[in-house]
């Protein structure tokens, strides 16, 4: 009986609390989506921390493919996410690349307003694609630029192999576009598709000769890879910005200001450093995200 | 009886109708187009998939059947629990985890995937071999001894023919499972039709998904069918189960 009495307040409060969120009394709730690589885990986690600080209940849907999380944003399963201007422009909207970051952002913003998605807070983080090789091998074969690579592949067809995640291997703004622009083809047998997390490792282990990476990838520094220069400027800028469901944006206008704090502080070097802490030093995403926010005064230390 | 037959037929017909409807839906949406438009890639992936399954299954058969035979000899009976537990262990670790664990030892690619699939296929074959040999009537073995047969003769003339059905059932189970599991080989860069399945998931493209998944399904059905035919050839008439 005594035990039961102790539980009564707990039960009452539980019922009340669930009723609150159920009827929307002060229940500010938002779902943050994220893609399937470290930088996205970090951005999603940081956004989650900041929103929680401001009294939001945050649900996270991470580790999804680009197109999957984008569809979720379009149909309202995800309320907001960090998206890259280049990806939206070329993969979702099928537009030609735009080299100027601001213009690209504006174009994406204009086009997406018809889809009920609002863009805001473009950060200086440019996570464009690059192709990398082992430094020794690149030097040996005399490959410094993508034009060199194209020439080499055309002269020695079937010799070089490439590791790629499925997105990089199939997206028009990634490998197929590079091959088209520079006029060469690896060939189906030469492209080894695998989990994105293994591509750099397989290059480092010498299983392949080339792999794709993103410019803010920690592995470039970790393995001392050579980044092949994009001499024909095929890859457009991929600046990270917040894309949010328009209705959610109208409902919670404060999200713009909250995520702006984050967007202003981030840049390529910081992102590279944070990716490094997770990928190479093996720290957990939550810890890295939390510590950085605290260090930069965005989050009170608890 | 008539009622049962009727229900059976209704179920059968509706299943066929479902399958047909699925194919009509998939074809009308052009979900199989990649198989024809990217024929070269498709054939390459199919080849890789079949190689993965064949090599790992053959290895598993070569190891598991003799192991099952050895373990059922009176001399080694005591070791049965040990070998059984090893085989069980191989089956209980999630296949993705086996792949991940093996990467650090064997690196990335074909041989790692083959090894993981091999580990995965051992248990059903081994178990069924042991069960098949154990299920033979002791009186039959006694009669064979009475006729003056040597242990090896007993094995090849009595035990194996009588256990053949069970052994083959194990192999069938292993191969069909293997064909499905081999779709995960993509993760570690060993190719196979899993590449298209995962491409479909990642790019949200039903065309890739179905062009990858349906051939895997058909491959499994085909393998099952062929192994049943093989059963007819190998299992002696007297030892066949009535189905």
Number of strands of chain A: 10
Fraction of residues in H or I helices of chain B: over 70%
Distance between the amino and carboxyl termini of chain A = 38 Å
Main sheet attributes: strand count, strand direction, barrel closure of chain A = 5 strands, mixed
Radius of gyration of chain A: 22 Å
Average per-residue pLDDT of chain B, rounded, comes to: 91
Number of strands of chain B: 0
The low-confidence runs of chain B, each spanning 5 or more residues with pLDDT under 50, are none
Oligomeric state of this protein = heterodimer
The shape of chain A is globular
Q: Helices and strands of chain A: which structural class?
A: alpha/beta
What does the largest sheet of chain B look like? none
Total helical segments of chain A: 15
Domain ABC-type glycine betaine transport system substrate-binding (chain A): 28-293
Signal peptide (chain A): 1-24
Protein name (chain A): Glycine betaine ABC transporter substrate-binding protein
Keywords (chain A): Signal
């Amino acid at each position: 009986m005594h035990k039961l009495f102790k539980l009564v307040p707990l039960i009452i409060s539980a019922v009340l609390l669930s009723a609150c969120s159920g009827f929307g009394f002060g229940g500010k709730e938002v779902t943050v989506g994220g893609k399937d690589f470290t930088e996205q885990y970090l951005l999603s986690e940081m956004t989650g921390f900041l929103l929680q600080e401001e009294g939001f209940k945050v649900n996270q849907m991470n580790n999804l493919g680009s197109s999957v999380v984008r569809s979720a944003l379009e149909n309202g399963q995800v309320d907001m996410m960090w998206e890259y201007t280049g990806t939206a422009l070329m993969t979702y909207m099928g537009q030609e690349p735009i080299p100027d970051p601001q213009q690209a952002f504006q174009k994406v913003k204009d086009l997406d307003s018809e889809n009920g998605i609002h863009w805001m807070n473009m950060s200086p983080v440019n996570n464009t694609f690059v192709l990398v090789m082992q430094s020794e091998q690149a030097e040996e074969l005399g490959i410094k630029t993508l034009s060199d690579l194209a020439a080499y592949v055309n002269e020695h067809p079937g010799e070089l192999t490439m590791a790629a995640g499925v997105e990089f291997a199939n997206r028009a703004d990634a490998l197929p576009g590079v091959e088209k622009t520079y006029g060469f083809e690896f060939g189906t047998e030469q492209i080894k598709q695998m989990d994105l997390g293994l591509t750099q490792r397989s290059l480092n282990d010498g299983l392949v000769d080339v792999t794709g990476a993103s410019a803010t990838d920690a592995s470039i520094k970790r393995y001392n890879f050579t980044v092949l220069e994009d001499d024909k400027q095929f890859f457009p800028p991929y600046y990270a910005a917040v894309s949010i469901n328009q209705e959610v944006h109208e409902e919670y206008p404060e999200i713009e200001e909250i995520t702006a704090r984050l967007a202003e502080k981030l840049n390529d070097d910081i992102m590279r450093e944070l990716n490094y802490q997770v990928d190479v030093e093996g720290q957990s995403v939550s810890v890295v995200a939390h510590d950085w926010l605290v260090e930069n005064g965005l989050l009170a230390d608890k | 009886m008539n009622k049962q037959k009727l229900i059976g037929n209704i179920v059968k017909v509706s299943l066929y109708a479902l399958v047909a409807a699925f194919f009509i839906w998939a074809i009308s949406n052009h979900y199989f187009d990649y198989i024809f438009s990217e024929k070269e890639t498709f054939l390459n992936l199919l080849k890789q998939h079949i190689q993965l399954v064949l090599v790992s299954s053959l290895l598993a058969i070569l190891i598991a059947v003799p192991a099952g035979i050895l373990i059922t000899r009176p001399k080694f009976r005591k070791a049965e629990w040990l070998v059984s537990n090893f085989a069980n262990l191989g089956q209980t670790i999630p296949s993705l985890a086996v792949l991940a664990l093996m990467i650090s030892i064997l690196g990335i690619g074909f041989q790692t995937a083959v090894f993981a699939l091999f580990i995965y296929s051992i248990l059903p074959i081994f178990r069924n071999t042991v069960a098949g040999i154990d299920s033979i009537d002791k009186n039959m073995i006694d009669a064979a001894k009475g006729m003056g047969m040597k242990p090896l003769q007993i094995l090849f003339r009595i035990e194996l023919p009588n256990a053949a059905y069970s052994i083959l059932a194990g192999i069938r189970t292993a191969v069909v499972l293997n064909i499905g599991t081999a779709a995960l080989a993509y993760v570690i860069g060993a190719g196979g039709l899993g590449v298209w399945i995962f491409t479909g998931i990642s790019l949200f493209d039903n065309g890739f998904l179905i062009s990858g998944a349906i051939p895997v399904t058909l491959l499994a059905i085909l393998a099952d069918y062929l192994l049943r035919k093989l059963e007819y050839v190998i299992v002696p008439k007297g030892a066949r189960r009535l189905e």
